[in-house]
Write a structure and sequence with these properties.
With 598 residues, this protein is of the alpha+beta class. 39% of the residues lie in helices and 22% in strands. Strand 11 and strand 12 form a beta hairpin. The two termini are 55 Å apart. 42% of the residues are buried.
């Protein structure tokens, strides 16, 4: 049974039981600014307002297939069941039906051969909420499950307090950590029942500790029904809810594997064509590395389709890390260039009928992946050489834009460890300097060290670079002055700038701001610094060691690099919009630009 069949059967099943089918919400939550959630991490997340009592426009019974993204288990991707992007099938009751309908429906869909998934009823085992001092054990769910199992002529014993599987046991009561759901510290909450499938029935009935059987992958969770029937007050009391809700979820990737008797999600049709393309693009195929590439490119495609672009903060940082991780593992297999784009083409073809936003944003997706892969290959080549000589993660971050996670992975592969605490301390100090300014005096007429003057200082570097791109390499700085309100930049140039030239300069600066480029500092000997091509002023005196600030992923292809003492912002995206307000002559052969950040 294909993944397309499973999706459709699920939606048809619940539509026939009075549910309205709603489309998937974006991976980018609309309430990001309110609660800081970067991505949609669970099927229930977009529906929280309705689970908390807000009427849903589709009614009290709804079903969907929701796009989700989690990176908490990113290091486990490549095994048989972990991935970063996944689809969650869910049906919801908003104050309508409850346990007596939800549990039998779940089991019916899983086992019915005509309109469900046709799985063997004898291979299922379930967990229920064991209760606490405040909330009794979920006897209601236990009773319903016993009735269900009896209907199928199956044993229905409940495990004792030792949580052991023994002869006849199919129901395991577990505590708060395993079988209780609440959105925060207070509010609607309740126990849940989880449904597990036995992947190795040939070994006989499961015997032993429940968690051991799950960790060994013998029992795989395929469905979870959450029953919200209490409200936890600020005083810690659990009061019965007047309107009880049901929130269910079933992961499509794991379910597709289970239905087709496969022992891992990467063997399913969801990944098969993607892995086939990867195999064609590499010279030294490796199963785990190819799974990581397949997962990460698939995730990146969906992220970009929902409006995320690579950057050095928040969602963009996660996307950048995922793309770069995919490229690194592809390169371990000696991949062709543009591997991310080629694999993405297959992902789009596989999913475009279900998620038309992929086809709609095809050009953008492929362009972003190509651009990020190209940038990272240059950074990686430089950084790997440096890594062999120096494993200082902060130096690698500042000089080559290496995320700390990448440095940790490189170290782990070589049996080394990274001092993460030291990195965090250095990073905190760096951020403090970037924000508050530096006590050090430096060229450029920076009178103060407020947040705004620091921004204008970085904008001045971008302006200088843009002028040289538009007017030629003979443009040279003759002086500058920065206040909280504006920047002023004097430069050598014989004639007045045309409106077209000014517009082009503005565009280059703003494009570099929109790209959210890293602003990095490196300290080199004067001779080494001059060899990088960094701009400097020969009338000024420099010591044996100099500080260079460059903007971009690496110093070789930085959009700007200058001898400078700082301080600067960490990323150009913090600057806002750049606008030239005036251009005039100050003396023969010297022009002056005044500009603001809006």
């Amino acid at each position: 049974m294909t993944s397309e069949d499973i999706r459709q059967r699920f939606l048809d099943f619940f539509e026939q039981r009075g549910h309205k089918i709603i489309p998937s919400a974006s991976l980018v939550p609309s309430d990001y600014g309110d609660n800081g959630t970067l991505f949609t991490t669970a099927g229930m997340q977009p529906l929280i307002p309705y689970l908390l009592g807000k009427p849903h426009p589709a009614g009290t019974r709804i079903a969907d297939v929701q796009k989700c993204l989690r990176t908490i288990d990113i290091d486990d991707v490549g095994d048989n069941r972990h991935n970063t992007f996944f689809e969650m099938l869910g049906n919801w009751s908003l104050g309508d039906y409850f346990k007596k309908e939800s549990i039998p429906w779940s089991f019916d869909f899983l086992t019915n051969k005509e309109y469900g998934l046709g799985l063997d009823p004898a291979r299922f085992y379930v967990t229920v909420f064991a209760g606490t001092k405040e909330i009794p054990r979920d006897e209601g769910s236990i009773k319903i499950w016993q009735e269900v199992f009896t209907k199928y002529d199956l044993t229905n014993k409940v495990a004792g307090e030792d949580e052991m599987f023994k002869d006849g046991v199919r129901i395991i009561p577990l505590g708060v950590d395993d079988n209780f759901w609440i959105a925060g510290d207070t509010g609607p909450c309740g126990g849940d029942t989880e449904i597990f499938y036995d992947t190795q029935p040939e070994k006989g009935a499961p015997i032993g500790k429940f968690n051991n059987l799950v960790e060994s992958f013998r029992l795989i969770e395929v469905w979870n029904n959450v029953f919200m029937e209490f409200n936890k007050t600020p005083e810690g009391k659990y009061e019965p809810l007047a309107a009880k809700n049901v929130d269910t979820g079933m992961g499509l990737e794991r379910t597709t594997a289970v239905v087709n008797g496969q022992d891992n999600i990467f063997a399913t049709d969801l990944f098969a064509p993607i892995l086939s393309e990867i195999k064609q693009q590499v010279a030294n195929f490796d199963e785990k590395a190819s799974r990581i590439v397949a997962d990460h490119v698939r995730t990146a495609v969906f992220m970009i389709a929902d409006g995320v672009v690579p950057s050095n903060t928040d969602r963009g940082y996660i996307l950048r890390r995922i793309i770069r991780r995919a490229v690194r593992f592809a390169d371990q297999m000696q991949a062709d260039t543009e591997v991310a784009r080629k694999v993405a083409e297959v992902v789009i073809e596989k999913y475009k009928k279900v998620y038309p936003e992929l086809e709609k944003n095809r050009d953008k997706i492929l362009a972003e992946l190509n651009k990020e892969e190209e940038k990272f290959r240059k950074t990686l080549a430089q950084g790997l050489k440096e890594f062999e000589k120096n494993q200082d993660p902060f130096d690698l971050y500042q000089t080559f834009g290496f995320p700390i996670e990448l440095t940790e992975e490189l170290a782990k592969e070589r049996g080394l460890t990274i001092d993460r605490q030291k990195f965090d301390e250095q990073m905190a100090k760096h951020q403090e300097i970037s924000k508050a300014g530096s006590e050090q005096k430096f060229k450029g007429g920076l009178a103060g060290h407020s947040d705004q003057t620091v921004k204008y200082h970085t904008a001045t570097h971008l302006l200088h670079s843009a002028l040289r791109q538009v007017l030629g390499k003979d443009v040279g700085q003759k002086g500058s002055n920065i206040t909280d309100e504006r920047l002023r930049f004097d430069f050598a140039y014989p004639t007045k700038l045309t409106d077209k030239e000014k517009a082009e300069v503005e565009k280059i600066v703003n494009d570099n701001i929109s790209a959210d480029l890293l602003v990095c500092r490196i300290e080199l000997t004067k001779d080494e610094a001059e060899k990088t091509g960094a701009l400097h002023f020969f009338g000024e005196k420099y010591g044996d060691n100099v500080s260079i600030y460059y903007i971009g992923d690496g110093i070789e292809d930085a959009v700007s690099k200058e001898f400078c003492g700082g301080p600067h912002v960490e990323n150009t995206g913090a600057l806002g919009r750049f606008k030239i307000t005036k251009e005039e002559a100050t003396s023969a052969g010297v022009r002056r630009i005044k500009a603001i950040l809006e």
